[in-house]
């Protein structure tokens, strides 16, 4: 297959592109190579590439910045996504698009399945949910993937690293570290997400999927496990979301249930702490 991957310099694309390139013709496109908010530019570039599959990993995902830059968040996470969906619809191509656990309110302490009602608390979550709806309404051959707590070896140029690297850097600087203990999630390694994406792509089973590593923890427990597995001493203490005072509200419980993967017999992702240990062993 001919595949275009947008957001080609992001941490997910860094694991996904080489994996797909082993079997397919893959063109990773950076933001500098394709302005997704420009419909005409999107059409010209995709007309030239002629992909059978477009995988959109690009997003405005600085959650707190989205609260201040609402128009930018919707331009990237909604209207740019619609440009891709329209091109894929008109050319009978498949669109794979990534969304987030932040589409849920997190007011129920239970894992949420694909059929559960969303209720985002932030501009970021709202924009990502709107993008989902446009993909699902516009492009018949779509796969929308919600995921959670991503980290990968490539980091993310737009976010200045990932949570694991940030924790290790703060520990090395001997700074006191406060991490929220009242937000529960599933940290997910991009290498494991990429492997499942490649597998799902071959099925041509379209629809909405939740894909994360297995299990759950709080951000505080995630940080504590990072230091434990890395053998690093850190001045770590728990805090609350209210005390931390981030501009954007986060869901208190955003663990995702993998009902659609289970239906296909593909719900076999490793536990989050095993994935973290593997990530730490592989650090340069």
Element-by-element helix/strand order:
EHEHEHHEHEEHEEEHEEHEHHH
Q: Strand arrangement, largest sheet?
A: 2-1-3-4-5-10
Q: Uncertain regions: pLDDT < 50 for 5+ in a row?
A: none
Q: Count of helical segments?
A: 11
Shape: globular
Question: Major beta sheet, specifics?
Answer: 6 strands, parallel
- The helix content is 40-55%
Plain-language structure description:
This protein is α/β, with parallel strands linked by helices and 284 residues long. It has helices spanning 11-21, 39-49, 63-68, 70-90, 123-138, 163-172, 190-203, 219-230, 241-244, 259-263, 272-281; strands spanning 2-6, 25-29, 53-56, 94-100, 142-147, 150-151, 177-180, 184-185, 188-189, 207-210, 217-218, 236-239. The strands form four sheets. Strands 2-1-3-4-5-10 form a six-stranded parallel sheet, with helices on both faces. A two-stranded parallel sheet has the order 6-9. The model has no long low-confidence stretch (mean pLDDT 93).
Concise structural overview:
The chain is of the alpha/beta class. The chain is 42% helix and 17% strand. The mean pLDDT is 93.
Topology:
Elements: E1 2-6, H1 11-21, E2 25-29, H2 39-49, E3 53-56, H3 63-68, H4 70-90, E4 94-100, H5 123-138, E5 142-147, E6 150-151, H6 163-172, E7 177-180, E8 184-185, E9 188-189, H7 190-203, E10 207-210, E11 217-218, H8 219-230, E12 236-239, H9 241-244, H10 259-263, H11 272-281
Parallel strand pairs: 1-2, 1-3, 3-4, 4-5, 5-10, 6-9, 7-12
Antiparallel strand pairs: 8-11
């Amino acid at each position: 297959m001919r595949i275009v991957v947008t957001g080609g310099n992001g941490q997910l694309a860094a694991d996904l592109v080489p994996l797909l390139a082993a079997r397919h013709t893959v063109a990773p496109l950076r933001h500098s190579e394709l302005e997704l908010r420009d419909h005409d530019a999107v059409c010209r570039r995709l007309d030239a590439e002629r992909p059978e599959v477009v995988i959109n990993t690009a997003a405005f995902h600085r959650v707190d910045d989205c609260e201040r830059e609402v128009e930018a968040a919707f331009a990237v996470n909604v209207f740019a996504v619609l440009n891709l969906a329209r091109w894929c619809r008109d050319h009978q191509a498949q669109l794979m698009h990534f969304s987030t656990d932040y589409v849920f309110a997190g007011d129920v302490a239970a894992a949420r399945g694909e059929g559960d009602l969303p209720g985002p608390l932030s501009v970021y979550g709202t924009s990502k949910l709107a993008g989902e709806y446009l993909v699902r309404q516009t492009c018949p051959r779509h796969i929308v993937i919600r995921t959670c707590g991503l980290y990968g070896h490539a980091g993310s140029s737009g976010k200045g690293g990932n949570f694991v690297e940030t924790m290790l850097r703060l520990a090395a600087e001997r700074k006191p570290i406060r991490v929220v203990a009242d937000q529960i999630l599933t940290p997910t390694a991009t290498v494991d997400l990429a492997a499942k994406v490649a597998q799902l792509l071959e099925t041509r089973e379209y629809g909405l999927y939740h894909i994360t590593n297995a299990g759950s923890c709080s951000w505080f427990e995630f940080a504590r496990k990072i230091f434990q597995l890395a053998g690093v001493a850190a001045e770590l203490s728990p805090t609350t979301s209210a005390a931390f005072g981030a501009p954007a509200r986060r869901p208190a419980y955003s663990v995702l249930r993998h009902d659609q993967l289970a239906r296909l017999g593909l719900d076999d992702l490793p536990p989050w702490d095993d994935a973290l240990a593997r990530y730490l062993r592989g650090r340069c």
